[in-house]
């Protein structure tokens, strides 16, 4: 990794499937995306290359690696890897992969005999093409993410950005922050500290006891104070929505007045539209870290509020390019500025 990037030109690319997010990031930086080409060939093959010289440049590549119609997580991963390889062949000084949602990050340990540890394999692929830094947002298990990579990694959280949007829209006191399981307690604690600081009120932490086996979630007793309170359930992602709704139902059963969810990655499996329509859950706040095509349809769509994280990512790029610390962005960071200079 190079000692300082300040003296090198800055280039920000976004793979086609993340172009909309990339354009918002570039706009917040006061610039535009650097041009690149993604070309299709017969038999499903493809190539990607920069259309501007990157020799000696500090380069950032944005691509969220969720699967969507016409572009699986595997497709997106391979395209990003090939593009990073091409950037290194073109003599970029440093290449940082900005991956808001990192595919396979949930498979970070063996849960069955002879299970793969896919997070580690994905890390090896990024390293093999010469990625200098990998940055992601609210990964499922931060320690597993950091330990999987030999190259430097950065991890930031969007939870305070979500909470700030909830606060702006109005939230009734008193409030309790709830983790849907014990494993998410650290994430929920960061949210609790942020809310307590901005609401000027005591904000307790609670969690829901649950057990998951072979895709089936069981449990539902709440440990903590929720009676007569607004509950904010904090998690890293939504897939089927079962975990969220079970937590919401458990909170309602113990007297919660209202239940709001703040979740970074809205993956929304097909069944999520039905699951999240349950009346125990009042609203679901998710970021635009993944494709909007994944948003649920039907009645529950009115519950979903999408929160932009482009300024958060722009601040990351600005700070990394200027060799500034990201430490305050890993816990309770909320971006203040609308536009960040790239100079």
From TrEMBL:
Residues 11-130 form the Ribose-phosphate pyrophosphokinase N-terminal domain. One of its GO terms (molecular function) is ribose phosphate diphosphokinase activity. Its EC number is 2.7.6.1. GO terms for biological process: 5-phosphoribose 1-diphosphate biosynthetic process; purine nucleotide biosynthetic process. Residues 35-48 have a biased composition (Basic and acidic residues). SMART domains: Pribosyltran_N (SM01400). GO terms for cellular component: cytoplasm; ribose phosphate diphosphokinase complex. It catalyses: D-ribose 5-phosphate + ATP = 5-phospho-alpha-D-ribose 1-diphosphate + AMP + H(+). The keyword Nucleotide-binding applies. It comes from the Bacteria. PANTHER family: RIBOSE-PHOSPHATE DIPHOSPHOKINASE FAMILY MEMBER (PTHR10210), RIBOSE-PHOSPHATE PYROPHOSPHOKINASE 2 (PTHR10210:SF32). This is ribose-phosphate diphosphokinase. The lineage of its organism: Bacteria, Pseudomonadati, Rhodothermota, Rhodothermia, Rhodothermales.
């Amino acid at each position: 990794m190079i000692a300082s990037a300040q003296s090198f030109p800055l280039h920000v690319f976004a793979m086609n499937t993340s172009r909309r997010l990339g354009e918002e990031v570039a706009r917040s930086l006061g610039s535009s995306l650097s041009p690149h080409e993604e070309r299709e060939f017969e038999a499903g093959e493809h190539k990607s290359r920069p259309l501007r010289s990157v020799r000696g440049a500090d380069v950032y590549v944005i691509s969220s690696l969720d699967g969507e119609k016409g572009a699986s997580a595997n497709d997106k991963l391979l395209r990003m890897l090939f593009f990073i390889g091409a950037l290194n062949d073109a003599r970029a000084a440093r290449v940082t992969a900005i991956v808001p949602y990192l595919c396979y990050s949930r498979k970070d340990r063996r849960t069955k005999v002879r299970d793969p540890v896919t997070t580690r394999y994905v890390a090896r692929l990024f390293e093999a093409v010469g990625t200098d830094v990998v940055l992601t947002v609210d990964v499922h298990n931060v320690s597993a993410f950091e330990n999987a990579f030999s190259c430097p990694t950065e991890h930031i959280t969007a939870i305070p950005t979500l909470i700030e949007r909830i606060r702006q829209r109005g939230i009734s006191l008193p409030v309790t922050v709830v983790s849907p399981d014990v494993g998410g307690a650290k994430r929920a604690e960061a949210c609790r500290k942020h809310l307590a600081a901005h609401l000027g009120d005591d904000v307790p932490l609670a969690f829901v006891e649950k057990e998951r086996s072979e895709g089936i979630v069981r449990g539902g007793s709440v440990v903590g104070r929720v009676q007569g309170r607004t509950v904010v359930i904090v998690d890293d992602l939504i897939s089927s929505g079962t975990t969220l709704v079970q937590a919401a139902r458990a909170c309602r059963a113990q007297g919660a007045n209202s239940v709001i969810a703040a979740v970074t990655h809205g993956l929304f499996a097909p069944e999520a539209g039905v699951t999240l329509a349950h009346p125990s859950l009042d609203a679901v706040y998710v970021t635009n870290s993944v494709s909007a095509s994944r948003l649920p349809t039907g009645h529950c769509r009115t519950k979903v509020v999408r929160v932009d994280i482009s300024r958060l990512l722009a601040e990351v790029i600005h700070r990394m390019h200027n060799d500034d610390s990201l430490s305050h962005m890993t816990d309770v960071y909320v971006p203040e500025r609308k536009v960040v200079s790239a100079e």
